[in-house]
């Protein structure tokens, strides 16, 4: 019996040693090989870049004349990027509050919807180089004299999308936030006096003011820090992110980015 146990122990030790040798020589590398980044090849193979956007966020993503074709600054930038990748741009319109969940569940490849870069998001997602640089602003009724800075939002009520970067800015300023689906709803609530203010992107306000000169709204304060918006990808999509960065560099070089920006804002907001 002892002799049998000894032989079994020797065999077991020999097998263990062999396993260690195979692992050291690369025999244990199969799992790492099976988890490669296929983000770019997946897009190339299906011939389309599936892009999430709201479709209600003028001038970035909206329908011309309310019910026409999807258009906007972000839409045209995304179309130009997809063209550089040699694929079709396919858009999926999604409410902002569900847009990150949709990316997580692989309903689309990326988001083009003025997504601001912050540390919390960078920990969860990949970001392209920025394609828009702007600032956050506090928007109030024109006759509001009580809010002249972000600090003045303390104790006031603002209307914000709960997953936007501007929601975080409002909360950090001490505001009480009422949830809305987007800019149009927040602007209406401010106009009606149902909230004191909204925090949003300066470019959104400027476009709104240009197209709605009698809105009765004003910029009451502007954040000192710049906000940068970029395409967002699932974590690990490094090859697709790099390809989009290359496409945007080419579009900057040939003047396409500046041309699209001038069309919507009268200035180059891409750098």
UniProtKB/TrEMBL annotation:
SUPFAM superfamilies: Periplasmic binding protein-like II (SSF53850). InterPro entries: Solute-binding_3/MltF_N, TAT_signal. Keywords: Signal. It comes from the Bacteria. This is Cystine transport system substrate-binding protein. Pfam families: SBP_bac_3. Residues 1-24 form the signal peptide. Residues 48-268 form the Solute-binding protein family 3/N-terminal domain. It comes from Arthrobacter bambusae.
């Amino acid at each position: 019996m002892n002799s049998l146990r000894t032989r079994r122990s020797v065999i077991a030790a020999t097998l263990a040693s062999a396993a260690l040798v195979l692992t050291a020589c690369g025999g244990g590398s199969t799992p790492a090989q099976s988890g490669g980044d296929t983000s770019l090849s997946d897009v190339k193979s299906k011939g389309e870049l599936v892009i999430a956007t709201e479709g209600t966020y003028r001038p970035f993503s909206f329908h011309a004349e309310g019910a026409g074709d999807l258009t906007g600054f972000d839409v045209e930038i995304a179309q130009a990027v997809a063209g550089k990748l040699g694929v079709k741009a396919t858009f999926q319109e999604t409410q902002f509050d569900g847009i990150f969940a949709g990316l997580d569940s692989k309903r689309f490849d990326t988001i083009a919807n003025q997504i601001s870069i912050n540390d919390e998001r960078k920990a969860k997602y990949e970001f392209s180089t920025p394609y828009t640089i702007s600032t956050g602003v506090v928007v109030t009724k024109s006759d509001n004299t009580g809010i002249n800075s972000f600090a003045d939002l303390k104790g006031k009520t603002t209307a914000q999308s709960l997953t936007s970067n501007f929601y975080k800015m409002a909360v950090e300023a001490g505001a009480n936030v009422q949830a809305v689906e987007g800019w149009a709803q927040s602007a209406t609530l401010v106009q009606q006096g149902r909230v004191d203010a909204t925090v949003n992107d300066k470019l959104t306000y400027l476009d709104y003011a240009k197209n709605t000169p009698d809105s009765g709204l004003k910029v009451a304060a502007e954040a000192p820090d710049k906000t940068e918006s970029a395409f967002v990808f699932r974590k690990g999509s490094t090859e697709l992110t790099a390809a989009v960065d290359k496409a945007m560099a080419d579009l900057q070089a040939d003047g396409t980015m500046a041309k699209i920006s001038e069309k919507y804002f009268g200035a180059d907001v891409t750098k």
